[in-house]
TrEMBL record:
Name of the protein described by the UniProt record: Type-5 uracil-DNA glycosylase
Classification lineage: Bacteria, Bacillati, Actinomycetota, Actinomycetes, Pseudonocardiales
InterPro entries, per database record: UDG_Type-4/5, UdgB-like, Uracil-DNA_glycosylase-like, Uracil-DNA_glycosylase-like_sf
Ranges of residues in domain Uracil-DNA glycosylase-like: 73-251
Keyword Plastid: no
GO molecular function, one term: metal ion binding
A Pfam entry, by short name: UDG
Organism: Amycolatopsis alkalitolerans
One GO biological process term: base-excision repair
Region named Disordered: 1-25
Length: 260
């Protein structure tokens, strides 16, 4: 039976159909419309089961929370000049709060850094409606549901890809810079950019912290700056694979390039 959720597109596949993202994302004319249909997606059975299981079992610290337990859309202005691409929502972070990188250790680091370089209105992100606003930045992910062990499968990544592709296409008129957090996001973003018509260098550049690649939009001749950054995960921070100054440096470079 078709799920008549808010934002559903008439005659589109049902939300639990693997073809739902591909068929539905392309029909969204705005980022707001895209977010509305995205949150109804149930195309990946393993991810749906996990996100809903976590919301039922909960973590003791969040026992009183009514978990979001749906796909988590991107966050930030729809005319952003800078996009940040992460991995996926955290089980007790975005999957709980309904906003990406909100309520988990990675988000604590990221939003504090964004505030420190002038890209966020406050250094903390605790829940939707907490007053946080991003300045010229939109944060999104290649997989919109929390995965077990923070590890989506390649099939789940590819099923979810149309959401990222459409979001970047809708941001294209204003987008100048993309910061990718981690190797998984890098591997997801490059095919999306290539399929979207951006000209990538050959061979395709490998991920690395601080990597800076210019990709050209043949339609306008304008460059899109692609920056690599280690993911601000608890492990990367604790092992000092990524330090706060390293993160600040990438975000400052991104903000500078976005203003040019």
């Amino acid at each position: 039976m078709r799920d008549n959720h808010p934002g559903a597109v008439p005659n589109s596949p049902a939300p639990d159909d693997p073809g739902y993202p591909a068929a539905t994302a392309s029909d969204a004319g705005t980022v707001t419309e895209l977010d509305a249909v995205l949150v109804g997606c149930r195309a990946c059975p393993r991810l749906v089961a996990w996100r809903e299981q976590v919301a039922t079992v909960k973590r003791s610290a969040f026992r009183e929370w009514d978990y979001w337990a749906k796909p988590v859309p991107g966050f930030g202005p729809v005319d952003a000049t800078l996009a940040i691409v992460g991995l996926a929502p955290a089980a007790h972070g975005g999957n709980r709060t309904g906003r990406i990188f909100t309520g988990d250790p990675s988000g604590d680091v990221l939003y504090a850094a964004l505030h420190a370089v002038g890209l966020a209105s406050q250094p903390t992100a605790t829940h939707r409606g907490d007053g946080l606003a991003l300045r010229g930045v939109r944060i999104t992910v290649p997989v919109h549901c929390a995965p077990p062990d923070n590890r989506p499968t390649t099939i789940e990544r590819d099923t979810c890809r149309p959401w990222l592709a459409r979001e970047l296409a809708l941001l294209r008129p204003t987008l100048r810079v993309v910061v990718v957090l981690g190797g998984f996001g890098w591997q997801a973003a490059l095919p999306v950019l290539a399929a979207g018509g951006w000209s990538l260098p050959r061979p395709r550049p490998a991920f690395g912290h601080g990597v800076h690649v210019r990709v050209t939009d043949p339609r306008t001749g304008r460059d899109l700056h692609l920056l690599g950054c280690y993911h601000p995960s608890r492990r990367n921070i604790s092992t000092r694979t990524l330090t706060i100054p390293m993160l600040h440096d990438v975000l400052r470079r991104a903000a500078h390039l976005a203003r040019q």
